[in-house]
Amino acid sequence: MLNIEQFRYGDNLAYLLYGKTEAIAIDGGAWQEILSFLKQHHLTLRYVTNTHLHYDHTPGNDFLLEKTKAEFLDCTTLADNEEIFVDGEPVVVYRT
């Protein structure tokens, strides 16, 4: 089962979905807090993605990718109902 951690930055929220060893960051604007959480919980960041590509949702992507070996998943190319696996658990994409 995956867990969800929410991080506030400015007027937005960033999310970290994580299992026992892996995580995916969504809207990484709170990149410092996300990196701290990953370290504290001994998690490997596997993916970084966004809900959409507005400037206020993407500011932490480069920092997260630079500090980890995570793969960037471009939200504009993810298909509806596509499954992304984190710690063997599916995360299903729902395009809105």
The CATH first-level class comes to Alpha Beta
**Widest sheet: strand order?**
1-2-3-4-5
Measured between the Cα atoms of the first and last residue, the distance is 24 Å
Largest sheet: 5 strands, mixed
Number of helices: 2
Q: Helicity range of the residues? A: 10-25%
Average pLDDT score: 93
Structure description:
This protein is α/β, with parallel strands linked by helices. It has a single domain, classed as Ribonuclease Z/Hydroxyacylglutathione hydrolase-like (Metallo-beta-lactamase, Chain A, 4-Layer Sandwich), CATH 3.60.15. 18% of the residues lie in helices and 36% in strands. It contains two helices and seven strands, in the order βββαβαβββ. The protein has helices at residues 31-40, 61-67, and strands at 3-9, 12-18, 22-26, 44-49, 71-72, 83-86, 89-92. The strands form two sheets. Strands 1-2-3-4-5 form a five-stranded mixed beta sheet, with helices on one face. β4, α2 and β5 (71-72) form a beta-alpha-beta unit. α1 (31-40) packs parallel to α2 (61-67). It is globular. The two termini are 24 Å apart. The model has no long low-confidence stretch (mean pLDDT 93).
Secondary structure blueprint with pairings:
Blueprint: E1 3-9, E2 12-18, E3 22-26, H1 31-40, E4 44-49, H2 61-67, E5 71-72, E6 83-86, E7 89-92
Parallel strand pairs: 3-4, 4-5
Antiparallel strand pairs: 1-2, 2-3, 6-7
Question: How do you describe this structure in short?
Answer:
With 96 residues, the chain is α/β, with parallel strands linked by helices. It is 18% helix and 36% strand.
